[in-house]
């Protein structure tokens, strides 16, 4: 029986992420140091682990309901109210999801139809476009490279006008993966002034909100556009809980009533024991990210110093835990080839900028969610490579 031509044709537009492809391509190198994935090297706080264990021992093993534990949604509402000046009703304006990825999927499936377009400032995390493509919609990138990866209100409005009636949503991600760019209150207010004029959704991925290094509190676009914004949050980065797979969708009741439909049929509900761990994290670990953030800043500053000495151009990131560095002139500008050669010769892995779309080529992304010892060793090897092996 011939079935290979009967798959969803939208899948033909999708490939395995280049991040994963590259990671797999160099994983067989003995003793390789990886500064590749957004995987904190810190462990989940003990009080969170104990709460999940207690839930298991208490036989908390049944479905929680589609939206998740009410206590967790209440804790999430309190957390974002205290941290980001946001107001959500836990009864009908918050959903617990299986990580931020499922939150994105459920939201995009709920709002998009074939032929729709979605604006995305670029270079960008490569996980958005495949979800958009699977439902037959299209990503339209806004090139920010000429402005140090910073989106402006003028860029945003120009792109909105160009798309016209096809435009259904804008995706914002800040602090951003891969660039570390984030925005001040004044900048967010300016974006809101543009966006409120148009009947479009704002999907705001703010999973790195607790990892902001400007000294000013993170400002959510949802504070200004609560009726348009679908806020994506999660605990993976803030509490070193990547494997726990707990994310959050927050929006007005009208939007959540639709998104919960796609969420229900994608996953039913998040893991019950993991939700009890997340409840503890939000209720009693509101500042668990602080010691991690302090160490990330030291790692960031060290990398900037060492890589600048080697000729890399770096826009200082104000959030997340990535360095997005331009490969110096005179070296191979094909980021995949450049890093593949580096990995084979020096047993160190970074991520090619091309993994983040056409506007990422010529750059490399380094995750500093790794120990300082690993980072220091990687910089020694990078210096050796640049001095002896890396030129065209």
TrEMBL record:
Residues 32-382 form the Aminotransferase class I/classII large domain. GO terms for biological process: amino acid metabolic process. Its EC number is 2.6.1.-. Its cofactor is pyridoxal 5'-phosphate. Belongs to the class-I pyridoxal-phosphate-dependent aminotransferase family. Pfam families: Aminotran_1_2. It is an enzyme of class 2 (transferase). NCBIfam families: PRK07309.1. Keywords: Aminotransferase, Pyridoxal phosphate, Transferase. The keyword Transferase applies. It comes from the Bacteria. Signal peptide: none annotated. This is Aminotransferase. One of its GO terms (molecular function) is transaminase activity.
């Amino acid at each position: 029986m011939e079935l290979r031509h009967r798959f969803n044709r939208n899948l033909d537009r999708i490939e395995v992420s280049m991040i994963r492809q590259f990671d797999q391509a160099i994983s067989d190198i003995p003793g390789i140091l990886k500064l590749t994935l957004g995987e904190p090297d810190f462990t989940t706080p003990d009080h969170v682990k104990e709460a999940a264990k207690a839930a298991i021992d208490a036989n908390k093993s049944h479905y929680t309901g589609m939206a998740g534990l009410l206590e967790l949604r209440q804790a999430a509402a309190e957390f974002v109210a205290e941290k980001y000046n946001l107001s959500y009703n836990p009864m009908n304006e918050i959903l617990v999801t299986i990580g931020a990825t499922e939150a994105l999927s459920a939201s995009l499936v709920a709002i998009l139809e074939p032929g729709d377009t979605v604006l995305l400032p670029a270079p960008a995390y490569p996980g958005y476009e495949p979800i958009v493509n699977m439902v037959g919609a299209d990503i339209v990138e806004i090139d920010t490279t000429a402005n140090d990866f910073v989106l402006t209100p003028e860029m945003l409005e120009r792109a909105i006008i160009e798309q016209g009636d096809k435009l259904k949503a804008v995706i914002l991600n800040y602090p951003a993966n891969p660039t570390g760019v984030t925005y001040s209150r004044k900048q967010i207010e300016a974006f809101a002034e543009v966006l409120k004029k148009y009947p479009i959704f704002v999907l705001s991925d703010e999973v790195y909100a607790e990892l902001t290094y400007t000294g000013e509190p993170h400002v959510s676009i949802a504070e200004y556009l609560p009726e348009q914004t679908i806020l994506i949050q999660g605990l993976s980065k803030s509490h070193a809980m990547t494997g726990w797979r707990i994310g959050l969708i927050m929006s007005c009741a009208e939007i959540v009533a639709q998104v919960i439909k796609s969420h229900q049929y994608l996953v039913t509900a998040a893991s019950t024991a993991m939700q009890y761990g997340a409840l503890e994290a939000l209720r009693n670990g509101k500042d668990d990210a602080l010691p991690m953030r302090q160490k990330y800043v030291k790692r960031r500053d060290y990398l900037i110093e060492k890589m600048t000495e080697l000729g890399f151009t770096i826009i200082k990131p104000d959030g997340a835990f990535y360095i997005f560095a331009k490969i110096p002139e005179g070296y191979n500008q094909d980021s995949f080839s450049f890093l593949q050669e580096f990995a084979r010769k020096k047993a160190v892995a970074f991520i090619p900028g091309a993994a983040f779309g056409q506007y990422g080529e010529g750059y490399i992304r380094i995750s500093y969610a790794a120990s300082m010892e690993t980072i220091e060793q990687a910089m020694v090897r990078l210096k050796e490579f640049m001095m002896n092996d890396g030129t065209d």
